[in-house]
Known about the structure:
about 300 residues; alpha/beta; 4-stranded parallel sheet
Amino acid sequence: MNAVDPTHRRVVLVTGPSGAGRSSALNVLEDAGYEVIDNLPMRLMPMLFSETEQTRPLALGIDARNRDFSTNAVIDLLGQLATRPGVAAELLFLDCSTEVLLRRFSETRRRHPMAPADRPADGIQAEQDLLGPLLARADVLIDTSDLNVHELRAEVEHWFAPGGKRHLSVTVQSFSYKRGLPRSVDMVYDCRFLKNPYWEPSLRALNGTDAAVATHVATDPRYDAFADKVLDLSLLILPACQEEGKSHFSIAFGCTGGQHRSVTLAESHALRLAQEGWQVSIRHRELNARLRKGAQQT
C-alpha cells in the first residue's frame, strides 16, 4: 500500500464477513480519532462528502446485510473517492477462516445473518462468495483467524492510527467525599491527611486553583512525597493501559469539601502528566457545580 498524503483526508471503508472483527476494527479507529459511521445505506454515502472542507479522518463500516449493498456499489464508491481532491480512500478487509468463523458463531450461539434459518456454514459460504470481489480489491487485508482482540487492535493501529501510536486520554478530577465518589473513575486518592486550608480564615473562601492555597497545601511535610509517588504510579500504569488498548483513564483526588486540597493535587498532577506528554483534561466536580448553581441564580 502506498503512503497516504498527510494533507489528504483519510477515508477507510471497513468490511469483511460477519464474525471477522469489523465492529472491533471500527472501535479501534474511533479510539484513534476517526469519525465512525456504521451501516449507512450505500446510496447515502456520497452525501458525506460535501464541498465543505473536512480534516478529521472518516471510517465507514460496510455490512453485506445492508439492504442496498452490492460489491459494485462499494467499488464504484472507491472510484469516486479516488477522483475527489484532498481525499485518500482505502478499503480495509477483515478476513477469517471458515473454521474459526464457525467456532465463533458456535461459542456465541448466534445465527448467521445471511442464513438465519439454515446452518451457519451456509451463511458463511454465501457471504464469502458475495464479498470475494472486495477481498481481491482490498488495500489492507487483515486475517483475524489467529488474532486476539489486542493483536487486532495493534494491526489496525499499525495501518491506520496516526504514527501507528495508541491514544490514551487522561482525565484528572477533584471531588468531595461528602458527595460520594465520582462515577466511572479508575483510580482514587484521598487527600484528607494533608493540611486543610479551610482552617485558615484568609484561605477559606479561595480554592485550590489559587496560588496561596496551593502553597499552603504544599507546606505539608508529606505533600512532596505523596505527589511524587502518585506521579510515579501514574507513569507506571498509563503506558500499560495504553498498550492494553484503553482509550480513556480517569484519576480522582478527594478531600472533605472538594475545594482546596483535592483541587490543588488535581491541578498539579494534571500539569505534571501533561509535561510528560500525556493528553490530559481536568475537572473539578464541586467547583463546577457551584459555578453552575451561581449562573442559574443570576
